[in-house]
Amino acid sequence: MKKLLRIDASARTQGSISRSVADYFQVRWTELNPGGRVIVRDLARYPVPHLDAATIAAFLAPPPPSGGPPPEGLVLSDALIDELSSADHLLISSPLYNLTLPSTLKAYFDHVIRNDRTFAQVEGRYVGLLTSTSASVVTTRGGVASPAAADELQTRTLRAILAFIGVTKVDVISLEGMSGDEVSRSRRIACARAEIDRLFASPGEPVE
Description:
Number of domains: 1
Mean pLDDT: 91
Number of strands: 7
Helix content: 25-40%
Structural class: alpha/beta
Strand order of the largest sheet: 2-1-3-6-7
Strand content: 15-25%
Low-confidence stretches: none
Shape: globular
């Protein structure tokens, strides 16, 4: 059974364009995978806490004895990693906040990027472990980037994070000018949906 993990990062649970485009992606994915399972992690309704000293200490501590309970700081992280590693495809919807990704999404990644769980150190280099997972990222921004800044910090950061844990097959659906007039905004949303349609129409596309 195919599994889609969807992560929504917009602080707005109503009227969010990134969420609405992710809705469309989810519908198309479900059409292609009628027996598949969709897991939704809403970081606005259920935010992941930022790291604290106790959690970092738990990350760095030796593994507990076999059969022993994990330290309290690892319970949430283990659950998030199990959820992520079991997914065939990851869908992230994220608006641009102050030049980068929302802090709730950064907090999520802080809990799932862990040595020997999602990456390993091999002969002095880092190797991502989630190589069988692919991803699609829906990003939105109010303005329109200049050509020199077309690939803004949020997209670069998300690509780098995903690549670090082994997710290198990443499609980005980027919507700009979402604070513009309704006609322009609707046209851009329609283009994003058409881009999603093309992803699902391509043979061998990882979203399958």
